[in-house]
Amino acid sequence: MDDPNLHFIPAVGQPIPAAPVSIAVWEWPGADPPLLFAHATGFHGRMWDHIVRRFPGRRALALDFRGHGRSGKPVPPIPWPYFAQDVLAVARHFGVRDALGVGHSMGGHSLVSAAIDHPEIFAALLLVDPVIFPPAHYGAPPPDASFILRRRNRWASPSEMFDRFRTRPPFASWHPEALRSYCEYALLPDGGSFVLACPPALEAATYGQSNAPESNLYAGIPSVRQPVTILRAGATGTPGVFDLSASPTAPDLAAKFARGRDILLADHNHYIPMEAPELVAAEIAAHPS
User: Fold this and answer.
1) What is the per-residue pLDDT for 158?
2) Could you list the residue range(s) of the whole structural domain that residue 266 is in?
3) 237 touches 114 (CB < 8 A)
């Protein structure tokens, strides 16, 4: 399958005053209706490469959310509604209608938020362990993501990152192609070395916004009439401990949608697209194209 084309489009819904921010979008040309992919916090659009290649000839779009990948880096924190605006900007720019939206983690949240405002964009949604908490979590103290600030930020090369991560959890259980894509596009050149494309301070601040009151989608979820499939990880966390491998998804979330379907993957953690791409691909293939 050919490499995707890289486009840059202007972000909308920016705080004022603010410097203009561009959104990077990776496009695999092909037949409509398209697949529209949205990644998790700290990742990038090329995390979907190993899944997109399973659908040759299908048009696919994968954005880098603002603050991530090749997109512009606004000053954090970024309220989560702005990530939904990134999805809407992509849909408007590329004329997307009746897409299958595929979103992991924060990406799943953002697709739901976009579908609430502009349902014509999507024919269906596939949400992979979306960050949509039980209602009581919203407005509570934010998760302590300070450990993210200690992430190693500078690397000699993507290959160095891959070699360091491939035997360490959680990366050791990832599909090798997913880990290679992560390392290749998680870094940006900086002088004679590389730095993380999603700076640790921005990533930590993004997690801190995850349960802010404006991130609560429950008032709008019943208006989403499209079929919604949720792949929900079985891994659970310890109360009071922010565990990136644990599922953040409300166990009864599917029941809140008009046409929701819940699939519990008891043996998997939050990194389902990286660990079990065949499960995600099978759900994509099950939707009419």
Assistant:
1) 98
2) 5-138+210-285
3) no
